[in-house]
User: What shape does this take?
Amino acid sequence: MNAHDEDRVVKLLREALPTIDGEPEPGRDLWPAVLKRLDEKPAMPPWFDWALLGGLVGLAALFPSAIPVLLYYL
Assistant: This one.
């Protein structure tokens, strides 16, 4: 790239990306809201996670030789 191309790229980038005026930080602290949301409802894994776990346990019970293969992909 020559200097003319570099100037053109810089100009295009400045037009495409807005300038950040003021503070780029949020107006308030978000961490207390995150903690409140986590305390409201405990995270429960969906039913298909339990189904996958049950399938893996069943596979390991029926085919014990598959255990090293499963551990390899973890």
Notes: The mean pLDDT is 86. Residues 47-62 form the longest helix (16 residues). The chain has four helices and no strands.
